[in-house]
Amino acid sequence: MAESPAIRVLAVDPHPIVQVGLRAVLESAADVELVGVYEDGLSCLRACAEKQPDLVILEVNLPGMSGLEVCKAVKRDHPQTEILILTSDDRDETVFEAIRAGATGYILKDITPDNLVRAIHSIMRGQTMVHPRIARRVLDRLSLMAQAPEGGRLYGDGLTEREIEILVEVAKGATNKEIARKLFISESTVKSRLRNIFRKISVRDRAEAAAYAIRKGYMR
Asked: What is the tens place of the pLDDT at every residue in 80-122?
């Protein structure tokens, strides 16, 4: 019976000491082939196009492009490539942004080498991996979202998922009619939601709302 091919892994982290550690762990791991270690997002994207890795280990805090921007770009151009976030950033908003960007796993840098390798294998088996320290918080947040009548809250400003979608469309310059058509809701619903959005984020008009969306990072 033929052996399964090794998992082709590409790693991205700006810190030399972490790069050295990742090389040591991954080069000694069974069934893993390290195809490169890079320090920034642009290098990662070029390498993904050239090497077609099965999985990218990605730090969210990178020079130039953020790790979340890199994650979105990789999943857009190489949807078959899995993304495992490896970072020290355990903030809820970063975790959810990474998941929204397409990451399959989110683990912290206090993980042991053996558990890092286990996480890689688990993700390639189709599982989702979340570091134990933040897993409980993620589950609690998802539970609240499921119970909320309008889709739950992901951000400190109290906007629901649907309200964020509408806010982003406003920032793009879409009219109420265009928003309604794109999101499959009525124009009256768009108007009602916009009133709630303006109230929640304390703005008076669409221009201020668009500026808010850009400032808060909703526009990617």
From this structure: 999 999 999 988 788 888 888 889 889 999 889 999 999 999 8
Q: In this structure, are 181 and 114 located in the same domain?
A: no
2 within some domain: no
Beta-carbon contacts of 97 under 8 Å, excluding residues fewer than 6 positions away, are 68
Q: What is the pTM of this model?
A: 0.65
Q: Which domain does 201 fall in, by range?
A: 161-215
Length of the chain: 220
Q: Tokens for 113?
A: 């080498």
How many domains are contained in the chain?
A: 2
What the block records as the tokens of 130 is: 């979340």
Would residue 17 count as lying in a domain? yes
41 and 113 belong to one structural domain: yes
Q: What is the pLDDT of residues 54-80, one digit of tens each?
A: 999 999 999 989 999 999 999 999 999
Residue position matching structure tokens 């959810």: 96
Q: Are 33 and 8 in contact (CB under 8 A)?
A: yes
The Cα-based distances of 206 to 150, 174, 175, 183 in angstroms read 22, 10, 10, 18
